[in-house]
Amino acid sequence: MSLPNINPTTTKSWKALQSHFESIKDLKMKDMFAQDPNRANAFTIKWEDFYVDFSKNRITEETFELLLDLAEDVRLKEAINSYYAGEAINQTENRAVLHTALRSKETDKVFVDGENVIPEIYEVKAKIKDFTNQVVNGVRKGYTGKPFTDVVNIGIGGSDLGPAMVVDSLQYYKNHLTTHFVSNVDGDHVNEIIGRLDPETTLFVIVSKTFTTIETLSNANTIRSWFLEHTTKEDIAKHFVAVSTNVEKVKEFGIDEANIFPMWNWVGGRFSLWSAVGLTISLGIGYSNFESLLNGANKMDVHFKNAPLESNIPVVLALISIWYNNFFKSESEAIIAYSQYLNQFATYLQQGAMESNGKSIDRNGDVVNYETGTLIWGEPGTNAQHAFFQLIHQGTKLIPADFIGFATSLYGNQDHHDKLTSNYLAQTEALLNGKAQDEVHKELKNQNLSEKDIQALLPFKTFAGNKPTNSIFINKLTPESLGKLIAMYEHKIFVQGIVWNIFSYDQFGVELGKQLATTILGELDINTIANHDASTQNLLEFYKQLR
Hints:
Layout: H1 12-24, H2 29-35, H3 39-42, E1 44-47, E2 50-53, H4 61-73, H5 76-84, E3 111-112, E4 115-116, H6 118-136, E5 150-154, H7 158-169, E6 178-182, H8 187-194, E7 202-207, H9 214-228, H10 236-239, E8 240-243, H11 247-253, E9 260-261, H12 279-285, H13 287-306, H14 313-326, E10 332-337, H15 345-357, E11 375-377, H16 389-394, E12 401-408, H17 414-433, H18 437-446, H19 451-461, E13 469-476, H20 479-500, H21 511-523, H22 534-546
Parallel strand pairs: 5-6, 5-7, 7-8, 8-9, 10-11, 10-12, 12-13
Antiparallel strand pairs: 1-2, 2-13, 3-4
Helix pairs in contact: 1-4, 4-14, 7-12, 7-15, 12-13, 13-20, 14-20, 15-20, 18-19
């Protein structure tokens, strides 16, 4: 069974949305609130510890109904069922997409090619738990008998971004181990990390499905060489573990087979933190917190699978995103988290969204005639307010934004948290209402400026407002709530891909540059240069002269 293959622009609902857009595109949200006292309540979803207010969007009740009609027309519910049933919805690679299975309950049954994969998943989880507890409790030691103090994750892409983001986001819950992440093939990067390490007390986790990824293997071999300057080959087995499917390659590296954690081809790299790829997360924050992260994601999975579309958080967020991307022609979305802990969250979501839905061929193999994908970017508030909010408030681009906030601080500094939350709430209000000319005029007049000076300043101090935001308010940043939040965005990406009729889970676009890089690397030590374009050839020759 395959996913529905429906060009969304051919549906009745899409055409109705296009007509509807023309009639409401200039409406002011401020007026909508004035006309409907119940608007905020009607466009809010309360679920567990999440409060999702999407009322500050340029939508009416009719817009919302038409967007829900679009979900029905593209047979979204059917697609969701295929997703959870383990069908090969990643059709170009003939794979299921089952990162949701990694956080399922042990009593669940999830079948891939007729086999229930839950027992195997729980075997790996037990291995992660046992290994984590041995390292954290000092039972497993380094080659000189000292307990481990540092953990280095060596990976790239999903083997780095997910674990790095989660460990950073949950620093409050960390144990005594210090975690480091080596990803970029830039030699300065790996050497900077090496300079902070003691070979006697450092554990290395190499994450590579095939154990052939050039960046990961280059960094792993550099670290291995540094390690062997202080030790012997026999000591590698005590300090290096791997998350991989290529057992023979890993053993050749010197890693004990007992220290190899498996991966599955039905888990895409950018959704793999829930698997053994999350070993560094477990080591950094403890297995119980890692399990809470998975449990939170599972709760969001159940919500997404079962909740009606109109009160389904990922579905609603995805449909609103499509409304801006395809009808307002807005190209980007900002993710603004009012927590410094979520410093890497937008960066993580960039991969999830832009690798998944950066596609121009639909599921029928045809070139799409509509926009897919959105540019994802952002920084934490309040830093973001002092960096790029000028563009959102008064620029020429329409930039929908998700504001993520937490009602309770972790360290309990209420003064700081009140100031943080005040900014969180004020910015969405300012983006909604803007500042009208008469309001600006009154302020300037109160400053005793002349009418001439007031008129000169008036256009520069006026804010149009009507800038859309979603407010995602969560009780507290915990491993469980973070798991829910990450899974929420994963499912939003899925819904967008279904509506846009694209395959969200392959990433062939990543491969071309890798292939060309291999060709160019081979040319650096020979006189012959292949047939490149003139610009690339000149740049290559310039580099060869200086290296």
